[in-house]
Specification:
The chain is of the alpha+beta class. It has one domain (about 10-105): Phage tail assembly chaperone gp13-like (rbstp2171), CATH 3.30.2220.20. The protein is about 45% helix and about 15% strand. The longest helix has 12 residues, at about 90-105.
Length: about 120
Amino acid sequence: MGLAKELRNRRKLEAREVLVPAWADESGAFKLYSRSITCYDLDQLQKKHPNFLNNTTIGAMVDLICMKAEDEGGNKLFKSAEDRLDLMGEETNVISDIANQMFAEIESVEDAEGN
């Protein structure tokens, strides 16, 4: 087996919880899940949104959310072009908060220690 295949077999992309207080109901903030953003994900975003990493637009953030948002069971939350249009109707701070949480890979020392 080649190294690339071995690395792929070892890869575990754990889903992280993303809280969306703006979508809260009586049980609390809405929770969605997102797996780590991969090189493949960034490549797909860059194809549709050139210069994505240097000039992140709301449209690009919405596309990221559509690509990565899952429910607790690992099912995609946003599948259609209509879903994308509905997300484009959200307030910019809600979309940017979700995208920022998806990009936040590094925990602070306090979070890691549970403080």
